[in-house]
Amino acid sequence: MSTFLDRRVFLEHGLRLSLATAAAGTLPLAQAQSLGESPSASKNREGMQTEPQVNQFLASQHKAGQAFSNYGMPSIHENRVIRLIGSNRMVAGNGVSWTPLESLEGIVTPTGLHFERHHNGVPEVDPARFAFTLHGRVAKPLRFDLAGLLRYPMQSRMLFLECGGNSNAGWHEEPMQKPVGSFHGLVSCSEWTGVPLNYLLDEAGIDRKATWAIAEGLDAAATEVSIPVSKLRDDALLALYQNGERLRAENGYPLRLILPGWEGVRQIKWLHRLEFTDQPVMSRNETGEYTQLLPSGKAEQFDFVMGPKSLITSPSYGQTLGSPGIFEVRGLAWSGHGSVAKVEVSADGGKSWSTAHIDGPVMPKCFARFRAAWKWEGKPAVLQSRVKDDQGNVQPTRANLIAQRGRNGYFHYNAIVSWAVDSDGTVRHVYA
Amino acid sequence: MFMLKRMRPVPFTQVFFAGLLFSAASLNAVSAQADSAANRPTPMGKALDGSMIIQFAPNIFPNGQGLPSGIGLAQNGAGLYQAQCASCHGKKGEGGTAQELIGGDGPLSAPDADKTIRTYWPFATTLFDTIARSMPPAAPGHLSADALYSLCAYLLAENGLWGWEQPMGPKELAAIVMPNHNGFIRKFP
To answer: Does the beta-carbon distance from A152 to B120 stay under 8 Å?
Structure first.
């Protein structure tokens, strides 16, 4: 019997969903999060119930507040919601920082929390000296300065952006016990605004035999990848803005290639040139890395699209359910093939499924936020979500993914994520 | 709309037409369809001088396109390797804080498949391209062409794919057929 409820239950019965009571204890940072406890019912050290400090709470009404600020920052009380960094001991700029998905709501990733994957640090690019170049097999090799680029008609799109190596801990034998963002958080979602590349391709006149373009960044790895011209023609954007402001340095300032739905490594940051050719360059990042070894011993190459994926962000590892009752199961779903068509949730490890509500608008190649009311009766449960996109692609179970792809694929892991809720309300990552 | 107020009543279609003319004139012919032929954006690209391209780090293709002239020897590469690479990749290329560069055994179909240059990489030119543009991380892009050929010769010789005494230049590097040359299934095109 499904323990998921009609969504209206929340409207009728009120909520026990307050999230913000960080439980004291040994869990680091934002992991210690208790679901379902009233924030006003705090206990002192002796465990005695204390009355909320009403007068202190209202004190801000009796003194002048802070002055204006030129650029706003998150509340100081939220300063533990950060990107956790995993970088190389010898090369500080080689590694990743993870979006803390477990601490965020809605579909927009705050720009300062957008995940990072750099190969050798964030370069400092002087916009006054910057030029973007089209060369190789083109009728007219061209360069564009930023003032020129800013003159073109622009387009804004809400898009997820996911590293091809995101979630690769899923291939491990044992389920990783970390907050969801710390192993699935190489994915973020932003509004990207920029110039459709098509305008510039028409201007340069791309040779008909040029089926590939080699994109290169201005970073210290001079990161370079091959991109089919057909994708550049289809929907590529030269992004200048992210979430309304000019790109942040760590997201490619001043220019980033955006390829909707494709793996992040192709979406070159600090983009400064495209060389048009009739063959891929076969760089390290498309041969030795970002290719998927199959059980046969052959490896898949140029598998660009990020497949359908969903995960529950609440409840998830590190959070604790309070007293039994109704909870909102919340999560994210996306697909590089198109729009999220349906998200289903299960509380019994995939034996039965209920359709989740999806917040609108649902946009192609963009995060969708799903929600489902769930009645937890204080017994063990295994929570899962699965997504189907509008192209008919369905998120696989882990067992099916591994049966098909083995465990050496490393990239493009998109299996169903399972959270076990124990009777004491703790949440663990499990394979189910 | 003040213009319409002064007019006598007219059939709807005429009002609609007048409205269109009015709005087009007042907006100075801004179109929402900037990609139609008549509304191509003003070209902002500037002609590129060939010398600007030469300044770029070349993209090195599997057929050797982009490789500079130069010559290297594995024995010269050995010294360069110890000075420039060993601190991260290990004294014998066994790996450390950075990837294993020398070695790798067993079939790629094994459950614990070892993906290395020797077992996995399909092209030797990728080695040159990667080192030339990104290594060593503290000062990338400074190795000479001869040094790069020497490093490639050394790593390939230690992997049993090149001779210690064989000079390596652009033609030789591009002609190497790596063991896993046919190991990839292209999903595109």
So the answer is: no
